[in-house]
Write a structure and sequence with these properties.
Length: 337
């Protein structure tokens, strides 16, 4: 198992203004010609509205190809999106991702209008723990610092000491200089971190409903049926899956690995749109797509991005009572390089 612990964002190439044929070129390997007319008009509308609203679209690696490749200004993993969100001069930021990602953007850009096209785009990890749970953990383990995965609500970030993402979790844990940390809420990410550090990791029982479904047996079948297949996994997968994989990393690290190594055949053990997004750019690599879909990420569509830009709703707001502490947890993470 090879691992990587850095994170990257890619500035999506600026879309050619309203040139449908040029935009289709970007996605032609993963969107059949008969499907493109369904998207083309909406893509044109979103590009026009972005200019009128002085808006940018940030897209997580799990967004569908027509969003990721055709209307996004910045694409990346959750760490990269958090970092890059502060670099834009736009007045409006649309988060094509899930609610906790939009909250992080709002924490870092309190003066900007931050939109999430569907406010119900949640995350099974973010609902796995509350601020009160964090306080109970602190009582049970006095003096032990709390590291929270960014896949949590602002309330939980406010109750923690520092955030981390899958791209920097080990570095963040070690940056604290303690013998012991409380690491919430993903049990599998916690066990992945624990195996790479001497720091004792106290975990919580949250799981990602997408990654917890991958199994070691599934990997074995891929290896039996596909010669030379390379298995690349996200650290939210169960430990036996990570053990059986060739590379483990955040979504951005998985993409970099595939682009760099150009394996003949690859299975990406993560949300299924990510394979489509990489396949659109790397024609030499053959992808087997185990389609574990994130229903929360899939709430975001071209249609509701357009609607959000038209109405400037739904807006993401973080109550001032928790924003200051939550922001501090995120900023402490961003200060660790
Ligand atoms: P990344 O931080 O690797 O982008 O992962 C976010 C996520 O939600 C994974 O399921
Ligand atoms: Fe949450 Fe998992 Fe969906 Fe990521 S893939 S947003 S961790 S439920």
């Amino acid at each position: 198992m090879t691992t990587a612990l850095s994170s990257q964002a890619t500035a999506a190439t600026a879309p050619a203004p309203l040139d449908s044929a040029a935009l289709y070129e970007r996605v032609k390997r993963v969107i059949p010609p008969m499907e493109w007319p369904q998207h083309a008009g909406l893509v044109a509308d979103v590009l026009k509205l972005k200019r009128e609203r002085n808006a940018v679209v940030l897209a997580h690696n799990y967004q569908t190809p027509e969003i990721y490749h055709c209307v996004s200004d910045i694409v990346g993993d959750s760490l990269a999106l958090a970092r890059r969100a502060t670099e834009s001069d736009a007045e409006v930021i649309v988060m094509a991702g899930v609610h906790f990602m939009a909250e992080t953007v709002k924490l870092l850009n309190p003066e900007k209008t931050v939109l999430i096209p569907d406010a119900k785009a949640g995350c099974s990890l973010a609902t796995a723990i509350t601020g009160a749970d964090v306080e109970r953990l602190r009582t049970a383990h006095p003096g032990v610092p709390v590291v929270t995965y960014v896949n949590t609500t602002a309330e939980v970030k406010a109750a923690a000491d520092i955030c981390c993402t899958s791209g920097n979790a080990v570095k963040i844990v070690e940056s604290l200089g303690c013998d012991e940390v409380i690491f919430i809420p993903d049990e599998y990410l916690a066990s992945y971190v624990a195996r790479q550090t001497k720091v004792k990791v106290i975990s919580w029982h949250g799981h990602c409903e997408v990654h917890e479904r991958f199994t070691g047996e599934e990997i074995q079948r891929y290896r039996e049926n596909l010669d030379d297949v390379v298995i690349v996994a996200h650290p939210e997968c169960p430990p036996d899956v990570l053990d059986a994989s060739d590379f483990v990393g955040s979504t951005a690290e998985m993409i970099s690995y595939v682009k760099r190594e150009q394996p003949k055949r690859v299975v990406m053990l993560t949300e299924c749109s990510m394979s489509d997004n990489v396949a659109a750019e790397v024609p030499e690599v053959e992808f087997t797509r185990p389609c574990n879909l994130c229903p929360h990420m899939k709430r975001i569509t071209l249609d509701n991005i357009r609607q959000a830009l038209l109405t400037l709703e739904p807006r993401v707001e973080v109550p001032e009572a928790i924003a200051e502490k939550a922001r501090a947890s995120v900023q402490r993470m961003l200060a660790v390089r």
